Amino acid sequence: MSRYWSDHVSGLSPYVPGEQPKKEQLIKLNTNEHAFGPSPKVFEAIQANLNDQLRLYPQPGSDALVQAISACHGVGRDQVFVGNSSDEVLAHLFNALFRKADKPLWLPDITYSFYKTYCKFYDIEPHFVSLDEQLQINATDYHEAQLNGAGGIIFANPNAPTGHYLTLDKITRILALNPAIPVVVDEAYINFGAQSALNLLQEHENLVVVHTLSKGYALAGLRVGYALASAEIVAGLQRVKDSFNSYPLDRLAQAGAVAALNDSDYYDKTNAAIIENRDYLTQALSACDFEVLPSMANFVFARPRWSSAKAVFDTLREQGILVRFFDQPRINEFLRITVGNKAECEALITAIKAQKTK
Ligand SMILES: *Cc1c(COP(=O)(O)O)cnc(C)c1O
């Protein structure tokens, strides 16, 4: 608390990101960064833009990037909204679409925790819909959202931190039954095997699909995210963005992102390798007596049957391996473990075996 703060600041509940260790040589499996580096073409593109042009503001509309995204997904340029990370895009979405008096936002009780932070920030009332016993979203729970006065719906698909995903037929039903309210599908982990909802954009003007280059394109450090939606929704987002920051993406980020989106060969290969490692990790953890939820993301959500999750988390840290533990009802017996490269996955399994024989 400070007497200098605006009134609402003391009431905020800021998002707490996973630890970014400063010096220690830790194996980092806690924030779902990509196990392999970005495409070499990204480095070339950034190098090529290290010149006197940095003196100039970037294009406010990030035109080249918008063009690349529109070509990559086969949607109109007026259906693309880019931002400095998908967190920023999500913040603008909450601001532009969900601030409706007396109309709560419907979202899963267990999902990306930043949504709750934005609700507080923008004074949006959350209406939490429980995941089922298997920690899956029950799509039918959202069928009557609009009928029951919801102002909007948001969920991550695949969901975080569970890794479960909803099939497109279920998402289609949610969209069709809630035509008057926006439905945001956060596809941060879409590049690891699940099917994107973006083919539903044509038919459903209420759909917003959010992507990031942080996970599937190994560019968490570049901070690039985007939303795909009807031109009508994108126009609202632009109004909000242009009331906040005209130039959210710097020249280097725009150049690197375009190069990444144009190198699908590279990412098809590295993402396939992650899926392979995910299968290995799932099997090896199961063999170590973990319950492992089936995952479509670059992490697994796993519960040790032989110990508390917190104890395993603490001991792994002492062993030099960082994973993520959420001290929250329903999920505090689980660990979220990023799928690393093969050596990292093996080091994790070795450490767990050492814990069990101690
Ligand atoms: C990582 C993540 C994001 C944020 O991605 P950035 O583009 O790095 O801000 C958004 N949503 C979900 C579900 C995530 O896991």
Distance between the termini: 46 Å
Q: What share of the residues does DSSP label as strand, in percent?
A: 5-15%
Specify the overall morphology. Answer: globular
Low-pLDDT regions: none
- Give the cofactors and ligands: pyridoxal-5'-phosphate
Order of helices and strands: EHHEHEHEEHEEEHHHEEHEEEH
Short description:
This protein is of the alpha/beta class and 358 residues long. The protein has helices spanning 40-48, 63-73, 86-97, 114-122, 168-177, 231-241, 251-261, 264-287, 309-318, 342-357, and strands at 27-28, 80-83, 105-108, 126-129, 152-156, 183-186, 207-212, 225-229, 290-292, 299-304, 321-322, 324-325, 335-338. The structure holds pyridoxal-5'-phosphate.
Task: Give an overview of the whole structure.
The chain has 358 residues and is α/β, with parallel strands linked by helices. The N and C termini lie far apart (46 Å). It has helices at 40-48, 63-73, 86-97, 114-122, 168-177, 231-241, 251-261, 264-287, 309-318, 342-357; strands spanning 27-28, 80-83, 105-108, 126-129, 152-156, 183-186, 207-212, 225-229, 290-292, 299-304, 321-322, 324-325, 335-338. Helix 5 links the parallel strand 5 (152-156) and strand 6 (183-186). It has a seven-stranded mixed β-sheet with strand order 2-8-7-6-5-3-4, sandwiched between helices. A four-stranded antiparallel β-sheet has the order 9-10-13-12, covered by helices on one side. The relative contact order is 0.17. The longest helix has 24 residues, at 264-287. The model has no long low-confidence stretch (mean pLDDT 96). Helix 3 (86-97) packs across helix 4 (114-122). Pyridoxal-5'-phosphate is lined by residues 85-87, 112, 156, 160, 186, 188, 212, 214-215, 220, 225.
